[in-house]
Fold this sequence. Notes:
Strand content: 25-35%
Helix content: 25-40%
Distance between the termini: 12 Å
Amino acid sequence: MKDLGYPKSVELGALSVLLREMRGADEKDMLDFARGLPTHDLLFLRRDITNPKVVSAWVEAIRAGTIWTVLALDGETILGCAALIRDPLSWSPQLGELRVLVAPAARDRGLGRLLIQEAFRKALRLNLRKLTAMMTVDQKGAIAIFEELGFRGEGLLKDHVIDRDGVAHDIVMLSHDVARGESQLAAFGVGETQ
């Protein structure tokens, strides 16, 4: 099976990005990216990626093969990322959790959609059968993009996260059956021929 062809340049209208896999040397840039995101955007993550220890653990998980991450770059600046998390030793090794983050200045240009598609391509290569994604219920734009790409609501977790101001937020969980959705996503330009 061919690789994903990284690094590769992609044009999104007036926005030109370089896609490549994350590596250890990206720790500082990832911290800068995470710290530049609105705090609310980070609530669905299981860990606080503005913490250097968390980003170091992320890099170690990439080396161990349990997390795969693609970065969207403008020069050396991270504009977005998609991470695919899996646990091959769990009862659900066929499951991947998808996390996507896009800098506010790079939104509404198709970058989130592109990152989801790249993660789906990787999921196909890993023979994953199901992808999940979580976000706060008020992230309507992100939910709409995931739904356009075949994800469907599976659950609502009431008051699941509490922000730094002590306010509780609901989290929605979406999922996608990778095997059944492969042909549907091919229509969106995601597939083995990419």
